[in-house]
Amino acid sequence: MDTKTKRTSLEAFISLCDLTDIIRDVALFQETNSFNREWSGGVLDKAAIVPEITQVSQFDNRLKHWKEDYLKLAGEYIKALPPRSCRVPNYVLIVSE
């Protein structure tokens, strides 16, 4: 691989690491809120839900931004490969929009 391809591959790897940070934050959020709901035994009021909705919206924005950046990197990686070179597959399953 040439320098540009190596750099792009490294940036893609770092981007996947960033995705794990987002997923970790979502999992911690879900774990905390799920536990509180399961053990509260009562009805949640609207004031308690608004901050949660705001946080979910922030997660959604972070994931959309990550996806846009990653797809751009994947395109750059493919463009950076020399003609007739072996293209190592770099797949990410995008489950939903």
Account of the 3D structure:
The two termini are 33 Å apart. It is built from two helices and no strands. It has helices at residues 3-40, 46-80. It is mainly alpha-helical and 97 residues long. α1 (3-40) runs antiparallel to α2 (46-80). The chain has one domain (3-80). The model has no long low-confidence stretch (mean pLDDT 80). Helix content is 75%, strand content 0%.
Instruction: Work out the helicity level.
Output: over 70%
Average pLDDT confidence is 80
Taking all Cα atoms into account, the compactness measure Rg is 19 Å
The dominant shape is rod-shaped
Elements, N to C (H/E): HH
Oligomer: single chain
Intertermini distance:
33 Å
Strand content: under 5%
**DSSP summary: helix tally:** 2
Q: Into how many domains do the coordinates divide?
A: 1
Question: Main beta sheet, described?
Answer: none
Count of individual beta strands: 0
**What class, by secondary structure content?**
mainly alpha
Can you tell me the residue ranges where pLDDT is under 50 for at least 5 consecutive residues?
A: none
